[in-house]
Amino acid sequence: MRTVLMVAEKPSLAQSIAKILSHGKCSYRKGISGSCPIHEYEDNFDGGRCKFKVTSVCGHVMSLDFEGRFNNWEKVDPVELFSAPTLKKEANPKLNIVKFLEKEGRDVDYVVLWLDCDKEGENICYEVLGIVTPVMNKSGGRKNVFRAKFSAITDKDIHSAMRQLGDPNYNESLCVDSRQELDLRLGCAFTRFQTRYFQGKYGNLDSSLISYGPCQTPTLGFCVDRHDKIQSFKPEKYWVMNVEVKTSSSGLVKLDWARVRLFDQDIAQMFLNLVKENNVAAVQNVKTKEKHKAKPQALNTVELLRVASASLNIGPQQTMHIAERLYTQGYISYPRTETTHYPENFDFNAALSHHKTHRIWGQYVRGLLENGFSKPRKGTDVGDHPPITPMRSATESDFDYDGWRLYDYITRHFFATLSSDCVYLRTEVSFAIGSETFLCCGNAPLKPGYTEIMPGQSIDGSQNVPTFQVGEECPIAKVELQEKQTGPPDYLTESEVITLMEKHGIGTDASIPTHINNICQRNYVYVSSGRRLVPSPLGIVLVHGYKKIDGDLVLPTMRAAVEEQLNLIAAGKAEYGEVLKHAINIFRQKFQFFVEQIAGMDQLFEVSFSPLSETGKPLSRCGKCRRFMKHISAAPPRLHCNTCDDTYNLPPKTNVKLYQELKCPLDDFELLLCSTGTQAKTYSLCPYCFNHPPFRDMKKASGCNACTHPACVHSMLSLGVTACTECETGVMVLDPTSRPKWKLCCNNSRCAAVIALFKNAHKVRVADSKCGHCNSFEMVVDFHKDTTPLENGETKHTGCIFCDEILSGLIQEKRARTMAKTSGGRGRGRGRGRGRGRGKPRQPKDKMSLLAAYFV
DNA sequence: GCAAGGTC
Fold first, then answer.
1. The sheet that has A48-56: what strands, in order across it?
2. Which one is catalytic: A334, A407, A524, A648?
3. Is A197 a catalytic residue?
4. What is chain A's mean pLDDT, rounded?
């Protein structure tokens, strides 16, 4: 029997497709990629009975990078990046997708590509084919690669796509390839150049990466443009006329001047005088009109991001994070979509029915079901995924605080789209005072419609106008001219930035949160109250600098213009190589011009920032000139020697202090003591060796705890005890400064393993002897005479901390608390699990060969 | 260490 391999863009889609095509009769098995299972069934295909395997990738399989040697920032001139060779590497090696596809693709007879029907999807088609084609069975001239084109995950659409399989579109894929290549070359060249240039000069930029990108930079541009508008704003005086009239029924009522305001005081005064000649205001006209406030359209990603930021005070990155969780737990539909139109066959009754008995909105939903809900507004169907809707009923206790708020909003929004519009009565009363007209307006709700389920949007009837009759004359209680002045606009809200990005085609629904997050993380902007994005001095200087040198670099229309060019490739109207070469050349020229003109930008930096030589506080002595070097604590942390004009990087997010004026025996630099917060790892470091490792087997950015100096008392060889019990590469090294709470710390900077040793020991050192059982180095412990655990009041003991009966009972494995977030969030879970192990440490794996090699 | 785009 022949085999058909079908590949979707994500696991959830593979599942839906398999279920639909097999009419629910498919089996399921796990693959070697933990995240992508395989669904199997039998069916007819190409004139015979076939075994179908439906699986997926997780987005792009490959990503573009430079060949290894071009990733050295010191040795490569950034301009070379416009011509440096690139390669495709596995996008996420942890997922093991390449091996997985090779395994599942081996010996299949057909491939059907079910990737999303957009350009990125087309590109992923060819990534999949690049892996599967070489291992699948030879076709013998028979067509064996097919592309399914579908616009919704519905029975009808999927079956129809399966009946009309076509071919993948190579031109669309090439268009994506060229965008990837252009973005990579351009982004990396500018980022490396300006990072190195400015970081080599200034000490208080407070960002370890001065990045440039075709999406992040225009995004920053929006925020700085608004800042400039605020700065250059000139307030203007204007005058309004405040009038109050007496009414018989409602007391005093304020009237608004029909002219609203005047910028000329003399003329305003003249009108005031004219008005003051009258005692009454005559009702001229009472206009009432029924108005509709339209219910919302079906929810897409960008709108969700806007509302979450503006109304729920949850940032875009966080919103997508929560939405993804709600999606994978089955509470909401797929959260990344541009579509605002429900599929034609969407089962609203079923979707509503889930909520019939809900404690909070059950009654509202029953109303919709019983009285017939109203047809949703027409939206746009981009053909990607249906709008975001709730998939099942849930209550507050199913989520954390923000999870619930987001679910609550998505659900209410869904009900709102099936509710009626809000109807209210608008009343406008006009008054004549002499020749001048004044107005009094108000609204009264008639039918709340959807605002009943979205109370935040309801019409406030409390400010409605009292009843007036035409011809009625109201005595004037007050007339005055009020001087006011125009105010500057406020900083852009995150929500407004999202709107601007969407309008200019900067980023996509899925990437907009990342771009905003980027400019925050790089300290170009910060989020102030009301989630307004306020640019930092660095962000301002960057944008002003680009504008000074080449405004195109920050122009919001640039992204769309570039994409328009590249779309010629997708449409088959231009040759891939030519268009890409042309675009790269333009940006190479722009880059070279930028480099030549960088002094223009630098002038702006000079005003806002201090040179390295004027930054920082003296900390430790330079090994070359013996003078104090200054510690620059702003990111990236460094030591700078003014005399030698040398800069030495220090580990990020780490407290450093002088280590007793001890010196490195190799270079005479004074050692520093590093710690990553309270109750964390501590180790010593030589600033010179940290940047220029003295030994081949010592990695860059290592402290003394990874130094392979054979004799120095601070080195790994002197203080190392055993291989780390948690990570693959680390060595547990004694922290000689930890007395009285002696501890061993893993020397791998990414590993938080700590072993707490005997408290209250006078002295602890690493012996030269090894444990015959586990190969760890033994330790020599000198206990305090009052608290010694040894018999007969003895205080001195030598033994293996894992195998010695006395010592092994006195140690405890821990995890360091760091100031930085632990990577992957896995740490805590493991820590808890280990904690239940009665504090008895695991035996070290016998990885000592690595360490032992150094001791030979 | 760098971009933007998928997705987990």
1. A27-29, A38-45, A48-56, A2-8, A110-114, A145-147
2. A334
3. no
4. 91
Determine contact, residues A464/A221, Cβ cutoff 8 Å.
Answer: no
Which residue has tokens 């029907």? A117
CA of A750 to C1' of B5 (A): 28
* Integer Cα distance of A471 and A449 in angstroms: 35
Phi, psi of A454 (to 5 degrees): -125, 75
Q: Which nucleotide is nearest to A60 (CA to C1')?
A: B6
Q: Which of A699, A705, A710, A649 is nearest to A673 (CA)?
A: A705
Reduced 3-state DSSP string for A561-621: HHHHHHHHHHCCCCCHHHHHHHHHHHHHHHHHHHHHCHHHHHHHHHHHCCEHHHCCEEEEE
Residue carrying the six token digits 């109370």? A455
A19 CA, B3 C1': separation in Å? Answer: 38
Bases of chain B below 7 A from a protein C-beta are 1-8
Instruction: Find out whether A91 and A62 touch, Cβ atoms under 8 Å.
Output: yes
Q: Phi and psi for A617 in degrees, rounded to 5?
A: -120, 145
The phi and psi torsions of A246 (rounded to 5 degrees) equal -90, 135
Q: Which residues contact A824 (CB under 8 A, 6 or more apart)?
A: none
Q: How does residue A839 score in pLDDT terms, banded at 50, 70 and 90? A: very low
3-state secondary structure of A3: strand
| CA to C1' distance (Å), from A570 to B4 | 18
Q: How far is the CA of A816 from the C1' of B7 (A)?
A: 32
Reading the block at residue A655, the tokens are 């407290």
User: Helix A598-608 crosses helix A537-550 at what angle (to 10 degrees)?
Assistant: 160
- Report the relative pairing of strands A110-114 and A145-147 from DSSP bridges: parallel
Nucleotide nearest to A192 in CA–C1' terms: B2
To 10 degrees, what angle do helices A512-521 and A316-328 make?
140
Nucleotide nearest to A176 (CA to C1'): B5
Question: Which is nearest to A524 in space by CA: A506, A500, A501, A540?
Answer: A540
Joined together, the tokens standing for residue A698 give 């010592």
pLDDT at residue A294 greater than cutoff 80: yes
pLDDT for the residue A377? 96
CA angle A655–A661–A662, rounded 5-degree value: 95
Q: Which domains does chain A have, with CATH numbers?
A: 2-168 (3.40.50.140), 175-232+498-607 (1.10.460.10), 237-288+428-451+467-485 (2.70.20.10), 301-419 (1.10.290.10), 618-713 (no CATH), 715-856 (no CATH)
Q: Which residue has its C-alpha nearest to nucleotide B6's C1'?
A: A59
Q: How far is the CA of A65 from the C1' of B2 (A)?
A: 10
Placement of tokens 């419609």 in the chain:
A449
Taking residues A133-153, report their average pLDDT: 91
3-class secondary-structure state, position A795 = coil
CB proximity list for A657: less than 8 A, separation 6 or greater: A619, A672, A673
Taking the C1' atom of every nucleotide in all shown strands and the CA of A210, the nearest one is B2
Contacts of A564 (CB under 8 A, 6+ apart): none
What CA–CA distance (Å, rounded) separates A732 from A776?
10
End-to-end Cα, chain A, rounded Å: 60
Please identify which residue in the block is written with the tokens 């999406």: A215
Q: Which residue is nearest to nucleotide B2 (CA to C1')?
A: A188
- The per-residue pLDDT for range A221-268, each reduced to its tens digit, is 999 999 999 999 999 999 999 999 999 888 899 999 999 999 999 999
* Distance between CA atoms of residues A30 and A25, nearest Å: 17
**Cα A690 versus chain centre, distance:** 31
Nearest to A556 by CA among A617, A602, A652, A492: A492
What confidence tens digit (pLDDT) does each residue in A88-136 have? 999 999 999 999 999 999 999 999 999 998 999 999 999 999 999 999 9
pLDDT for A183 equals 97
